[in-house]
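Case study B.
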Amino acid sequence: MSTTLSIHNPATGQTITTLPAHSPEQVAELAARARAAQPAWAARALAERMACIRGFREAVLREQESLAQTMTAETGKPIRMSRNELGGLIGRLDFFLAEVQRVTATETVYDEGGMTEQIEHLPLGVVANISAWNYPWFVGCNVIVPALLTGNAVLYKPSEYATQTGLAIARLLHEAGVPADVMVCLVGGGDTGAALLAQPVDGVFFTGSVATGQRIAQAVGHRFIRLQLELGGKDPTYVCDDADPRAAAESLADGAMYNTGQSCCSVERIYVHESIHDAFVAHFVDTVRGYRMGDPTRDDTYIGAITRAPQLAVLEAQVADALAKGATLHCGGHRGAGPGNWFEPTVFSGVDHRMELMREESFGPIIGIQKVSGDAEAVRLMNDTRYGLTAGVYTPDAERARRLLSQVHAGSTYWNCCDRVSPRLPWSGHGDSGVGLTLSTYGIAAFTRPKAWHLRRG
Ligand code: NAD
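Model:
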């Protein structure tokens, strides 16, 4: 197990810093301290815990620019998008603060003839949060904030590609009054995550790849603790014959390429009705050609660095496979020149489901556009996947969109929009996209367990 963690800037290849990593013994010690500290945190009035999150919110706003720069340096995310993520976080915090009281209030569900029945919402206890790097503030805080508000202690293992952001989240929470033993940030890679799973936690909340999700399920499945897995996607969109090809292309190019395509809900497959296919592809390629790739600290950069160097080989393999099977390449298709990890925004048409590009998550700035003959074929292809995170339809016809999207297996559905997450709606996946959910009032309740009270007077 490594004793240090080196943090690199994926846009320059330079080492930013090297941090000591937590050893398994230190992880065990911190987990024991969290266990000891949790009851007092849960015993505090909800108003006190809410005040801490309000203080955290103020600190994020105060430090927004330097936090955005830290995130951009360690992930390669274009600075404009780092600022957007921090701005979006405020809306999520406001949602949790507005709803937590209602969701966790003890409910009287029956009260007759001297008999009262109540549901009390108790914290799970100590929860582990192991998380991804692509939206580190979102995926981190989707768990940390409702978990803390509902009285849990949190052992947080941020991605090794977003550790400085993870440490900043913990620091700001501590400064806002959350005790150090109640909010713990663990530094390290997958082995530190594995050491965390070995601790007697009451819940595991994971965001990351299917492969790691499967390992985590194997490691803790037999322990009957709360387990949530938010995994990858191969998110499809269908553009109907009555859609405006230019408007749909501009919207979907952004949905496919935003955050350099490194979003769990990036548009990953596009099906276009044959009658507007050629016009759609032309507008799509035009839009993508207008995206500037380069230094992510520049305000006008749209395509940033590929955060994890090994992903470059995945993207290259998908390009080679698509070309070998007869796809048409319109732009991109290659790594960009180093230093740093770069991949040109890449657009294919003439693709089909024999190609990896249409089957496996790309997680990069690359997209396949497939021509379809009508609604039935589009629905069949959208469902021809092991994933089920999001799916969309572009058409002016609301009834048609609802009919089509009702037939698609996905946790979130989009009509004339894409690559969108709302704090008010549950975020979940079907199939290999995971189990459980975050966000919405359900994503607050996920950190509690209901206790039943049967109370007879006299
Ligand atoms: P990853 O699976 O490589 O790593 C995720 C986390 O797991 C990291 O913190 C890593 O250190 C840790 N880890 C690795 N091996 C471990 C082990 N054996 N035991 C415990 N922890 C271990 O994923 P990633 O590259 O960080 O993230 C990209 C993936 O995340 C994509 O597939 C993306 O779709 C998915 N994602 C999903 C959502 C969602 O909401 N569904 C959101 C963001 C990202």
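Residues 130-135, 139, 157, 159-160, 189-190, 193-194, 197, 207-209, 212, 215-216, 230-233, 264, 308, 361, 363, 389, 427, 429, 434 surround nicotinamide-adenine-dinucleotide (CB under 6 Å). The remaining cases will be described in the next quarterly update.
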